[in-house]
Amino acid sequence: MLSIDSTIEHHFASLHELETKLKPAGFVISSNWDYDQGTFDLKIADAGGAYYFLRIPFYAVRGELDTPGVHVRIGKPFMLGHKYEAGLDNDIASGAVQGAFNQFQTPVDPDADIPSAYEEMGKQHLREVERLIL
To answer: Which SUPFAM superfamilies does this UniProt record tie to the protein (predicted)?
Structure first.
């Protein structure tokens, strides 16, 4: 994980406003949100057996994330890499039923190093986010 300083950290806005600005730029709200926090994710690259993401966390400060009109505070942006093993998942203990619901491999390294080229790409995307939000 690589934390990145940004002028959007601590910015307060409606979640709807942020979604309106960030989704057209390729960001999605990750599926691991809960009622008081979540993240906007942008996949930077899928290269060399790893995925690299720019992640922008946010925290509910007025309302809950599943209610209209919720306002959030943006946390410190960061990049992360997930290294995976190409090919089939060798963990056959999970069985066919589990495979029907979870089709993704567990990362070999969930906190892989970020190559400098992808770090720079992430920072460029973050500068664009700053321009969109501020």
So the answer is: YugN-like (SSF160755)
- Record the pTM: 0.81
Count of CB atoms within 10 A of residue 55's CB?
A: 19
CATH code of the domain covering residue 6: 3.30.310.100
Position 94, amino acid: S
Give a three-class secondary structure readout of the chain.
CEECCCCCCCCEEEHHHHHHHHHHHCCEECCCCCCCEEEEEEEEEEECCEEEEEEEEEEEEECCCCCCCCEEEECCCEEEEEECCCCCCCCHHHHHHHHHHCCCCCCCECCCCCCHHHHHHHHHHHHHHHHHHC
Task: Convert the pLDDT of each residue in 32-47 to its tens digit.
Answer: 889 999 999 999 998 8
With respect to residue 16, please indicate whether it lies within any of the assigned structural domains: yes
